[in-house]
Design brief:
By secondary structure, this protein is mostly helical. The chain has one domain. Helix 1 runs antiparallel to helix 9, helix 5 packs parallel to helix 7 and helix 8 crosses helix 15.
């Protein structure tokens, strides 16, 4: 029953959050145009890279620790992440101002946005572990609505990318303040900053670092994988080509809402039952797989048949070059949908180090593929590199689960 309830809440949360997030980028793309939207996309990709040490791979661990009642670890991790994000933001802003002073406003605002977002995610990870997922709905809905309101009012046609970056940062700060308000209203004492955090961080740092290190490596791998294409495109193609690619990729991210919702709802139960009832955890895995794979086939067929209509209706004729890119990128959902399941299952079974190895290996593969395919094919090469890498990630994780007998009906040691 808890899984069904969580599924409904996550469906609402992810639909609202991703839907509003997509609406933000749709309006931003139309008002900025392909070139400035490409510049914004590059800055966001760069910001995602520098957010890796801010994140520290803690989101699934925060949910897991909270679900298991390990509140001391969760509290210390919250404060570690806050300190990291503050320090790294300061360093990034200083370096950006030194290397690219003409872009300091854009890069600084994007760095600030990611720092706020990381700490928002800390809170929503706790909310998931406490089965208070409706709070996550409120937080992300407010952040996205504010971002959309800001650009509708303040982002005029032919505006600069820096303006959009500032508006994103403002929405993130407001949402973080909402998170802290929720903590006070619901009296979530273990999420308070006021206790003696120095001793708590020191006493739990080793335990946190031991579990988080593999996921930090995963983050490095995934961010290199998800963002390196835009970074490398910057070296070989024009900003408008980056804008076309980013438009198609945003649509792919929108399509991936279904597995994201499904696994966000399933993961707390999967993490708990991997210890208390491994047999039930394996049953959940098999049921989820039978839902995700057929769904990916249906969605792929629909999108392939309606690509021109989707692009021209949503983004206008200026972005027709995105049609061929979307047709390639959408093939990857055949791997992405089950991929969400196999990667989260590895984390639920505490196979973080194996997951990290796969992520880093596939990130390296993706970099190589992009370097080989972007020069002759441009953005289309980046799209094919994404498809190939997604297939490799899912197959590798699935093989690890099979080898460790974590998804078979046989008794295993979790």
């Amino acid at each position: 029953m808890a899984v069904r309830k969580n599924l409904k809440i996550q469906a609402l949360t992810q639909t609202i959050s991703r839907g509003l997030g997509f609406l933000f980028f749709l309006v931003a793309a139309r008002r900025l145009g392909a070139e400035q939207f490409g510049i914004l996309s590059f800055a966001l990709s760069l910001g995602a890279i520098i957010s890796i040490p801010m994140d520290s791979g803690l989101d699934p661990l925060l949910t897991k620790w909270t679900a298991r009642g390990e509140f001391n670890l969760a509290q210390a991790a919250l404060k570690i992440r806050l300190l990291l994000s503050t320090g790294i933001l300061m360093i990034f802003t200083f370096v950006a101002g030194w290397i690219a002073p003409q872009d300091i406003l854009l890069l600084g605002s994007i760095g600030f946005y990611y720092a706020a977002l990381i700490n928002i995610q800390s809170h929503t990870s706790y909310f998931r572990g406490l089965n208070k997922m409706h709070l996550e709905t409120w937080v992300f809905s407010i952040q996205k609505l504010l971002a959309i309101l800001f650009i509708l009012v303040l982002l005029h046609p032919n505006s600069q990318a820096a303006t959009a970056g500032i508006l994103l940062a403002a929405s993130g700060v407001c949402a973080f303040m909402v998170c802290r308000l929720i903590v006070g209203i619901h009296k979530l004492e273990f999420m308070s900053f006021t206790s003696a955090y120095r001793s708590e961080i020191g006493s739990h740092f080793r335990s946190i670092f031991k579990e988080a290190l593999p996921l930090i490596l995963v983050l490095i791998g995934w961010n290199l994988y998800f963002k390196v294409d835009v970074i490398l495109l910057k070296a070989f193609v024009s900003d408008d080509q980056i804008g076309y690619y980013s438009t198609a990729y945003k649509l792919l991210e929108g399509i991936n809402i279904f597995p994201s919702i499904f696994l966000a709802a399933l993961f707390p139960a999967l993490a708990k039952q991997s210890i208390t009832n491994p047999l039930q955890a394996r049953k959940l895995f098999r049921k989820a797989l039978w839902i995700l794979v057929p769904t990916s086939i249906v969605i792929l067929t629909i999108v392939e048949l309606s690509c021109p209509l989707i692009i021209e209706t949503l983004f206008g004729s200026e972005f027709t070059a995105s049609i061929s890119l979307l047709r390639v990128l959408v093939i990857s959902i055949l791997a992405i949908f089950p991929g969400y399941l196999v990667t989260q299952t590895l984390i639920a079974y505490d196979k973080n180090l194996l997951y990290a190895g796969i992520a880093l290996a596939c990130a390296g593969l993706n970099v190589v593929l992009n370097l080989l395919m972007i020069p002759p094919l441009g953005a289309l090469g980046a799209a094919w590199a994404t498809v190939i890498t997604e297939v490799c990630v899912t197959l590798a994780c699935l093989l690890v689960l099979i080898k460790n007998r974590l998804i078979s009906s046989q008794s295993v040691e979790a």
